[in-house]
Design goal:
Number of domains: 3
Largest sheet: 5 strands, antiparallel
Helix content: 40-55%
Radius of gyration: 31 Å
Number of helices: 12
Order of helices and strands: HEEHHEHHEEEEEEHHEEHHHHEEH
Strand order of the largest sheet: 3-7-6-5-4
Strand content: 15-25%
Structural class: alpha+beta
Number of strands: 13
């Protein structure tokens, strides 16, 4: 409420709370955390009600609000020319639990912060890349969790975990003239023509802006959906490093890539000769002469319990699983190309 000229009055509309009121009228059950819907009795009905948010009914209420909070408007013969200062559209994906969302969001946000380039940002907004374009990406903690924001001039796209269960993508425009379309242009001299021009700041541009910003959210979602999801691999690595429980509650300890006693037997299993014919205890003992037969048997059992080996039915023959091959190859690369060179004494 401005007490000084030119008496600019700002009005905000929260679409989520507006939708909550329409859901109550339609008797659709819902549950919210802050301004995020985490449960809905009818998702399709809620989407239909959300799409029904129109500009004209909002415009009809604005003169009365202006008269109430800024009475000086009565002295302005033409009233307020209502325009758009900022507009935001969001796309929310609701997960059944925080446990389902957390690993997916953590990995997607981490990769998006590194993978999104300036030409990708232009594509999200369906724009050609301008040589003068300025773009940034930042990743920071917020009250809800963490948030990554990509900015292209006065436009931004951000993604964050809302309430632990909602993955929300928001597209925001602080300058709607960024968008251009074919419209009638009136020149100061009175001449008019139809051409491609920046979008007007009128509140009636909100109808088209809603679809433009929603499309930017969908393009960003399509982009992060193409990123490689390594959350399962991170879970596998953690699980293989911890003890595995088996029958009779026996515990089989995990594998430590930094221990020679763990790494040497695992690399022996990786030998190419076992790829076709598989391996057995006798062949493994020949490669590990310091290991007693009982130790070899326990090693094979331990590898199986951690999902790194699979046994051929009715035979004492084993093959590496897909996970086992990837894990052992990673251990070999880590040891030979990173750890050993890094620990080698520097040449004098």
């Amino acid at each position: 409420m401005p007490p000084w000229a030119p008496f600019r009055l700002q009005v905000y509309c929260n679409g989520h709370h507006w939708l909550a009121g329409r859901l109550q009228q339609a008797k659709v059950a819902y549950r919210m955390q802050d301004n995020a819907f985490v449960e809905l009795g009818n998702w399709a009905k809620a989407q239909t009600l959300s799409a029904a948010l129109a500009v004209a009914p909002r415009h009809e209420k604005l003169p009365a609000l202006a008269q109430r909070f800024c009475p000086v408007v009565a002295r302005l013969t033409e009233g307020y020319p209502w325009s758009v200062m900022q507009v935001e559209s969001s796309l929310a994906l609701v997960f059944r639990s925080a446990e389902a969302l957390t690993p997916i969001y953590a990995e997607s946000a981490r990769q998006a912060g590194l993978a999104v380039r300036i030409d990708d940002l232009a594509r999200f907004w369906d724009k050609r890349l301008s040589p003068a374009a300025q773009a940034t990406s930042d990743f920071k903690p917020v009250v809800e969790g963490t948030r990554i924001t990509h900015r292209l001039g006065a436009q931004s796209i951000k993604v964050y975990d809302k309430g632990g269960r909602v993955l929300r993508i928001e597209a925001t425009s602080h300058a709607i003239t960024f968008f251009r379309h074919h419209r009638k242009v009136e020149h100061r001299a009175g001449r008019t023509e139809y051409k491609v021009a920046p979008r007007k700041k009128s509140i009636y541009s909100l109808t088209d802006l809603d679809e433009l910003l929603a499309a930017a959210c969908r393009r960003y979602l399509d982009f992060i959906a193409t990123l490689e999801d390594r959350s399962d691999q991170r879970h596998d690595l953690d699980r293989r490093s911890r003890p595995a429980r088996a029958e009779r509650d026996r515990s089989w300890r995990g594998f430590n890539c930094f221990l020679t006693e763990d790494l040497t037997p695992r690399l022996a299993v990786l030998r190419g000769e076992f790829t076709i014919h598989g391996l057995d205890g006798r062949r493994l003992r020949a490669l590990l002469p310091t290991q007693r037969p009982g130790q070899i048997a326990r090693l094979l059992k331990r590898l199986r319990r951690h999902g790194l080996l699979r046994k051929v039915a009715h035979r004492y023959r084993y093959y590496l699983t897909s996970l086992g091959r990837r894990a052992l190859m990673a251990a070999r690369k880590l040891s030979e190309f990173l750890i050993i060179p890094a620990l080698a004494p520097a040449a004098s």
